[in-house]
Amino acid sequence: MSLLFRINLILAAVFALGLALIIALNRDLLLESAHRETMNQAELMMQAARAARDYTSTNISPLLQDKLQDNFLAETVPAFAATQIFQRLRNELPAYTYKEATLNPTNPVDRAVDWEVDVVSHFRNFPETREWSFERESPEGTMLVLARPIRIEKDSCLICHSRPDVAPAAFRARYGDSNGYGWQMGEIVGSQIVSVPATVAQKVAGRLLRDFIIVVAGTMAAVFLAVDVALILFVVRPLRRMTRSADALSRGEVLQDNEAAAFSGRGASEIVALGAAFDRMRRSLEKAMKIIEQ
After folding, report:
1. At CA 77, angle to CA 73 and CA 82, rounded to 5?
2. Domains, the chain, ranges and CATH?
3. I need a surface site. Which of 58, 98, 105, 150 has the fewest CB within 10 A?
């Protein structure tokens, strides 16, 4: 087994152990980073939905308010606008879901289910809370959830949701007089909820881990190659040259001029010292052989 092969074998074992250790130490960090990236994406989508709500209530609803008595337009409802915007965002991120879970909605689709009721209750019990992120178990697996409270902050919301008798006739004709009324200024009536399967974060972590392994393995391969080149140039070649010369001298052969030339002073100090010692030995042997031949 050659020296170069043994050194390569040792280097390969060290690199493999180092790579495994680096992966083990950074796996949790990468998973945390993926979780953070996933929730940041959810927050961006939440902000887009919030912006759609604000724009609709501030810019769209006032323009069409006079027409709502005779013809109800869903586009004037902030929740409708936010939901529609989110549905378009889902074309790029289909794993994310959005719901405006409400305790007493006009539209039954928006009614909060059991765990969503707990989320709304949390915001009602702790009104200073502006955002809440958590994990929950569902039939589809672990879900990452980002929630924000829906608080009545504008008088325009109470036009449809205060009392049935003051709500637009078209609104009452569509949703009836039973649900979605009795809201009050400053009240938390629901929650914006963005959900995403935990497997999304795990996939992101897997991608980050794969890229990390590629970078580390590539760096190690480059180091491996550089070490091999250095060994060949400064250790293996000088040793092979000395071996050939020593073998020739042991058979009593006269070295050619290029073979008899002094070994180069390049390389590791130990190899240079060995080459110098071998040169002295070679010259001494050649002188001794010439004396014997005389």
Report:
1. 125
2. 3-10+209-293 (no CATH), 26-207 (3.30.450)
3. 58
How many angstroms separate the CA atoms of 103 and 144, rounded? 22
pLDDT tens for 205-254 read 888 888 888 888 888 888 888 888 888 877 777 777 777 777 776 766 65
The radius of gyration computed from the CA coordinates of the chain, to the nearest angstrom, equals 39
pLDDT digits (tens, 9 = 90+) for 117-152: 999 999 999 999 999 999 999 888 889 999 999 998
* Half-sphere exposure of residue 237: CA atoms within 13 angstroms, side-chain side: 12
Chain centre to alpha carbon of residue 188: 34
pLDDT computed for residue 260 by the predictor: 46
The predicted model scores a pTM of 0.64
Pure H helices in the chain: 3-55, 61-64, 78-89, 114-125, 155-161, 169-175, 198-231, 237-250, 257-260, 269-293
Cα distance between residue 13 and residue 19, in whole Å: 10
Task: Give the C-alpha separation, 258 to 137, whole Å.
Answer: 79
Measured between alpha carbons, how far is 234 from 12 in angstroms, rounded to an integer?
20
The residues near 256 (Cβ < 8 Å, ≥ 6 apart) are: none
